[in-house]
Amino acid sequence: MPTFTKEEIVHLGDLARIALTDEEITRLQGDLNVIAESINKVQEVATDDVEPTANPIPSGCAGNPADSGRGNRGRPGFRSRHVCGTAHSGGGVT
Q1: Which of 8, 24, 32, 75 is most exposed, with minimal Cβ within 10 Å?
Q2: Does residue 15 carry a pLDDT above 80?
């Protein structure tokens, strides 16, 4: 199990030019160790024969390779041009 030492957390703070209190160092040390352990668990079960189950590009958007040749037209009321445009800009659907 990977563990981040207090010295490593301080070094990361220095690299980011962030002054950390002792309380913040302790909290970040615990948080980063939980994240690292979670990554290790995923790597243990991840196999090459499992296909991805999510696509970061919304269905119906130009450039989505999963839609090529399938003629996806979207659902009634689904404004794909609006959604596709905001998906790349970080905006929300209004």
Answers
A1: 75
A2: yes
- Closest by Cα among 11, 52, 57 to 32: 11
**How confident is the model over 66-76, as a mean pLDDT?**
53
Q: How far is CA 10 from CA 1, 24, 42, 53, 75, in A?
A: 20, 10, 27, 37, 51
Q: Hey, CA dihedral for 41, 45, 48, 54, is it positive or negative?
A: negative
Q: Compute the chain's Rg from CA coordinates.
A: 21
Sorted by sequence, the CB contacts under 8 Å of residue 10 that are 6+ apart come out as 20, 25
Rounded CA separation 83/57 (Å):
10
Q: Are 85 and 75 in contact (CB under 8 A)?
A: no
Intra-chain end-to-end CA distance of the chain, in Å:
45
Q: For residue 32, what are the contacts with CB-CB under 8 A and spacing of at least 6?
A: 4, 9
At residue 27, the pLDDT reads 96
